[in-house]
Structures are given as C-alpha cells and as structure tokens.
Amino acid sequence: MRFSRPATTGKGCCAMKKIVVLSLVALGGLYLLKKTNAGSYICTAWSNSRTALQRQVPRSFELDRVRNEIAKLDADIVAMLDPIAEKKWAVQQLDRQVKAAQDGLTTRRTALAALAQKVEAGEQRVSFDNEQLSLNEAKARLANDFARLKADDGLLKSRRALLDAQKKTLQTAEAKLSQMRRQQAEFAQRLATLEAAEEDLTLKAITTPLRLDQSRVAEIKNTLDNVQKSQEIEAIKRSLEERFTNRQGDPAPEQAPTVDLNEIRQFLGDQPCCPEAPKVAKSK
Fold first, then answer.
1. CATH superfamily of 57-208+215-242
2. What is the dihedral of CA 131, 135, 138, 144, to 10 degrees?
3. How far apart are the first and last CA of the chain?
4. Which of 93, 97, 143, 278 has its Cα between 20 and 30 A from that of 128?
5. What is the DSSP-derived secondary structure letter of residue 276?
6. What phi and psi, each to the nearest 5 degrees, are found at residue 205?
7. Rounded distance, CA 168 to CA 174, Å?
8. Where are the domains of the chain?
9. How many CB atoms lie within 10 A of CB 254?
C-alpha cells in the first residue's frame, strides 16, 4: 500500500511569508526605537500636536465643558452613597456583635473565677451553674470552660481589630465624599470668576481688537488652570498693546528750519547774487 504525501498549499506558504516579514518589520522598529532617537521624536511630536490642539480650543468652549464636568460630580457623589451606606450598615452590625460578645465574655469570666475559687477550696461537692459536681467534674468543667473562654477571647480580639479597620475605611470614604463636595463648590466658584473675567475680556476685544493664538477632579483643575493662564496672558498683551500700538499720542514731526542764503554768503564774504533773494527752507 502506498501512502500519499500531504501537499502543502500555496496559501499556507504565503501566510507564513507574511508572518516572517511582519516579524522582521516589528523587530526593526524596536531596534530603531532603542538605538536611535526615533522614540523621543515621536513623543515630542505627539506632545507638540496635543498642545497646539489645546490652544485652538476656545476658552468659552472649555468653560462650558468644565461646567458639565462639575455637574457630573453630583452623579459621582451619588454613586458613592450606596457602597458607603452598605459599609456603614456592616460596621454597625459588627459593632453590635462585638459588644454582645464582650458582654458574654465578661459574664463567663465572672463564672469561671467563681468556679476556680471553689475548685481551689478543695470541696468534694461543688455547686455550679445549678448543678452539683464532684471535685474532679468541677476541675474538668473548669479546664473546658477556660479553654473555650481563651479561644473566644482571641476571636473577639480579631473581630475587634476587624471592626477598627472597617471603621477607618468608612471614615476615609466619608472624608473623600466630603472632600469631593468641597472641591465641587470651589470649582463652581472658580468657574464663575473665570467666566466673569472672560466676559470682561470679550467686551475689551470689541473696542480693542487683538489677534489671539488660540478621571474627573484632576482634569477639571488642569482645565481651569489653563483658562486662567490664558486670561492672564491676554490681559498682559492688552496692556502692552495700549502702550506700544496706540499712535494717537505720538509727538508731531519736527519742522524744517528757515535758511537765509544771502545772509550766509554775506557772512562768508561773498556778495549776494540777488539782493532780494527769498529765504529758502532747507529740506531734510
């Protein structure tokens, strides 16, 4: 019997060649990025293009966008209420459990101390917890209750540590919520101030035209900083424009002095060519 050899298809060869070529191109690109400044050029070009795009966005548009982002903080705060409320309920439940366990351990400590005193007295019959026990039974009961009390006391300490950690987490969440609310109010006040300044600059632009080159909390702050910076720069440029581009107060040009040519010739010893020669103004 003859076994036929599986034929390799042309499509498989082409696909393999493409994979090899793409791998070589990728390796070459990595080599260029590591051995040359291409990566630095790309990052610099991206940064410059991003900065240029930001300058082209009107300030009024940026202020409107920030107003919307500030309004969205309300939704962010509301979204935090449910998990905080659930956490607070869990902390309250754990606190009740810890207090109940503490009260139970206090009662058991008192009973264990009383049983220990009776065992230590060496009485043959011991009355404990409405039961009559022999001395050996009392000793066994004392050892058993003591072991359980130690275990439950260790468990209580662990639950108390967990309760403290949960309370700190809850306090941090509530503090963050309060901080977001304060920042929202601060952003709203700052936005109102920048909008008023923008309106003032718009009115000045009407009388003095000037060509201009134009997560969530962190982005709002950066935008407001950029708007404020742009406003301050424009105010400085307008002050410079008033100083250096206003031609209304320029001094009048000096007048050319009047020159008497006959008087000059006479002073130099020459006779005047014509006695009644008019005075000629010397041109600049």
1. Helix Hairpins (1.10.287.620)
2. -150
3. 118
4. 97
5. T
6. -65, -25
7. 10
8. 18-56, 57-208+215-242
9. 7
